[in-house]
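Entry for the shared binder. Reason: the reviewer on the internal report wants the predicted structure included alongside the sequence.
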Amino acid sequence: MLRDEPQFARLFIGQSLSVLGDRVSFIAVPFAVLSVGGSASDVGLLAAAALVPMLLFSLVGGVWADRFPRHRIMLVSDLVRFAVQGMAAVLLLTGVAEVRHLVLLMIVFGTADAFFMPASTGLVPLLVGADRLREANALRGFVQSAGLVAGPALAGVLVATAGPGGALAVDALTFAASAAFLARLTPRDMAPETAQATPGGKFLEELRAGWTQVRSRTWVWSGMAAISVYHVIVLPSVFVLGPVLAEREWDGAASWAIVTAGFGIGSVVGDICAYRLKVGHPMALAAAALAVGSCQAVIIGSGAPVAVIAVLEAVTGVAVSLFFVIWETALQTHIPEAALSRVSSYDYLLSTGLMPLGLALAGPVSDSLGVRPTLYAMTVVAVPAALALLCVPAVRRLPARAPATTGGEGALTDPEAAVA
């Protein structure tokens, strides 16, 4: 596919480098906080600081990405993140970093993310044909998953030899490389549709048009609700409590890197499966996969040997990859092209944007109840929520291909009729 789609190939290469740096940062940042005297609550605070801007700016980012060239928005976002990670690296390497410095930098980082993510989702259909969307998303997922394998290994070496500051310096350089590839992209223009946001248009009207696309499709808003539970309940176990447990009871960063690498290997397998997947109603499979992926918290807190936890995390990695490839492909297939970034911005608002709530509460709750009881409670909430998604008829019946329409926001008077 990369040979046949040169524009997507450029995005793929640039994002591959950037994701590798992100995965290094994923390991390095919690230990950076701990290295400057931070606590478990501080680890959660820093993670939340990078995500809070999603609540404030993701909708703005969605409108902008439907108004202006999406690859240019991504380019600027990469340059901002290059500067942020570079500054964090300098502060850590010179020994003057404090938790408050890192929090402020992560707020700026998260703001750039809030503009990058909706633009990224909306860009792919402008680089490949509709019949290649699933393959393109699977390859993008493969990059994310492979980064979970290579990133922790590289992070373990960098943190051990150069400290968290050296690891973040590498992350900064990967953002610069990604920006260089984005600068060379020439995506096709968006097809003119009535849902399109235009420069000079009214911001609230454009947001309402995007929200119409969400609320008129049961499978979209119910899927977003389930993803929100996953981000708010399950992922804090990975971002906050997992590293804390590794630091207190395992062998620190090395053991945590093994667990995250296990998840990454499973994710690679899941992406390979998604690349070849041909299912008539893929969202039914996605909902079941989300239920499996929501078991991560109880696995991390199981008390099993690190090797066993890594293997079980690999199983959840397969499931999580399947879910998100299918979900993103479904949005790109069934949502009008010119409203796609706004719809995805609601997705990020209701999932990633609310994630700081879980991150901020995970540390204090675990301080009160204990780390393991908190991890068990997360699973008790998250798995039933994913199973509830599987009970929604519009989710189970959503076809892999979009029905033929005349295009535009009003093209499908009753969107649920297409999946009945």
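Summary line for the report: Residues 89 and 165 are 4 Å apart (CA to CA).
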